[in-house]
């Protein structure tokens, strides 16, 4: 989700250029104001032979159901910032709560500049320790942890692939992270959150280089690979400079076939995730449909790394339909992580599923929990 102030949006197929960060639009408070899934046999064999490799290997089916625990990525202008004043890592009981709701995955947004203050330099020991603690908390709750580099394909404001941030700088980050966590299969690598202001083919080139770098370390962790243009499912075929994610991302490959294409999808009028409204009860299904067809056509798996809805009846129906659609298409969908939870969101944030001060669930949680139970039980 949006955490940085966006100064320009030349490639935005997802949201209008407001000049405001998502946190500003929804007034995430400072820590000082906390409110915090015989013939028939012959036909079956023929169908199996026609399946993409990922399916034929028996790896299809929804496996991951979870939530984004936001906080470590916030206040990006405060670098490195002060822990629990400028940014916050989730506590152990937050993992326990969501595990109790049958979720088995946490997506943890982090900030590249805090983790690696100098391009090509070592990972900051304190930040790495915090990520290791997050991994330990997730594992104690029997959950997977997605390390999500929440930087929008930028580093200190410069786009990956530019003179200031060549692709090798991005590769270096992932080489170091892969070495740090390659022995831990509970850790999933989220290459980058919502790349934008970068053309799809340029982004695909950078993403492929990092996949190759990770595998050269010997790491076998699952890798989540987003597209450009904010990686919107609804805009997968949209073009900029004559390029689309549908074409650029089709060439992504992994020698271990241990990856998924990560998409995000919101249900407000412009798919921006800046409103809690949902345009219809069927909008979730409608906006996932073309991306789902693309996954199947290209023999790929998908992961819905962000989606969120408000608390209305229409939104509840749209949320239930969206989750059900992924289950019905589990030959190509691998999992999902709802946006968002975290103790620093204010009570008015429409997507917030953090329990209230009295421990009461948010309305969306009953739907999320029921669907997660179907996946993880």
UniProtKB/TrEMBL annotation:
UniProt KW Signal keyword: yes
A GO BP entry: cellulose catabolic process
The enzyme's E.C. designation: 3.2.1.4
UniProt entry keywords in alphabetical sequence: Carbohydrate metabolism, Cellulose degradation, Glycosidase, Hydrolase, Polysaccharide degradation, Signal
Region (Disordered): 356-377
Glycoside hydrolase family domain boundaries: 90-341
Superkingdom per UniProt: Bacteria
Pfam families xrefs: Cellulase
Hydrolase among keywords: yes
UniProt family annotation: Belongs to the glycosyl hydrolase 5 (cellulase A) family.
Name recorded for this polypeptide: Endoglucanase
Species this protein is from: Xanthomonas oryzae pv. oryzae (strain KACC10331 / KXO85)
């Amino acid at each position: 989700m949006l955490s940085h102030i966006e100064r320009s949006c030349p490639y935005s197929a997802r949201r209008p250029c407001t000049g405001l960060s998502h946190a500003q639009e929804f007034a995430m408070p400072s820590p000082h104001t906390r409110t915090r899934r015989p013939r028939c046999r012959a036909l079956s064999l023929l169908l199996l032979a026609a399946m993409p490799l990922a399916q034929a290997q028996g790896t299809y089916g929804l496996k991951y159901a979870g939530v984004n625990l936001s906080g470590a990525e916030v206040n990006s202008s405060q670098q490195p910032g002060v822990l629990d004043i400028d940014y916050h890592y989730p506590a152990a009981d937050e993992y326990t709560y969501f595990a109790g709701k049958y979720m088995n995955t946490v997506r943890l947004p982090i900030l590249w500049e805090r983790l690696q203050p100098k391009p090509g330099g070592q990972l900051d020991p304190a930040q790495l320790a915090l990520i290791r603690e997050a991994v330990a908390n997730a594992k104690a709750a029997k959950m997977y942890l997605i390390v999500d580099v929440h930087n929008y394909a930028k580093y200190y404001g410069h786009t990956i692939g530019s003179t200031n941030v060549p692709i090798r700088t991005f590769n270096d980050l992932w080489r170091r992270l892969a070495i740090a966590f390659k022995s831990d299969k509970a850790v999933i690598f989220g290459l980058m959150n919502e790349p934008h202001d970068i053309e799809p083919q340029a982004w695909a080139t950078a993403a492929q280089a990092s996949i190759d770098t990770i595998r050269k370390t010997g790491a076998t962790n699952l890798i989540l690979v987003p597209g450009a243009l904010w990686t919107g499912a609804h805009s997968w075929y949209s073009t900029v400079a004559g390029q689309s994610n549908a074409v650029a991302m089709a060439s992504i490959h992994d020698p271990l076939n241990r990856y998924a294409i990560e998409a995000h999808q919101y249900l407000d009028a412009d798919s921006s995730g800046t409103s809690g409204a949902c345009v219809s009860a069927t909008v979730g299904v409608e906006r996932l449909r073309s991306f789902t067809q693309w996954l199947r056509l290209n023999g790929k798996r998908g992961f819905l790394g962000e989606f969120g809805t408000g608390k209305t009846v229409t939104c509840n129906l749209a949320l239930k339909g969206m989750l059900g659609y992924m289950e019905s298409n589990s030959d190509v969908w691998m999992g999902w992580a709802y946006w968002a939870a975290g103790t620093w969101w204010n009570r008015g944030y429409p997507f917030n599923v953090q329990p209230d001060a009295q421990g009461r669930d948010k309305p969306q949680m009953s739907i999320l929990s029921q669907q997660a139970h179907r996946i993880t039980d």
